[in-house]
Amino acid sequence: MTVDSQGTATAGPQDAPGRAAAQSQTPPPPSGPKEVLQPSRGRRSLPSGLLPYLLVAPALLSMAVLLLYPLIRNVILSFQKLDRKEFITRETVWTGFDNYTDLLSDSHFWDVALRSVVFTAVNVILIMAIGTGLGLLLNRLGKKMRLVLSLSLMFAWAMPIVASVTVFRWLFDEQFGVVNWLMRTLGFSGYDQHNWFETGFSSLVIILVLLVWGSVPFVALNMYAGLTTIGTELYEAAKMDGASGWRTFWAVVFPNLKSFFMITTFLEIIWIFKAFAQVYAMNAGGPDRGSETLPVYAYIEGVGQFHYGVAAAISILTIVMLIAIMSFYFRLILKQEEEL
Question: 162: which of 3, 10, 211, 320 lies 20 to 30 Å off by Cα?
Answer without folding.
Answer: 320
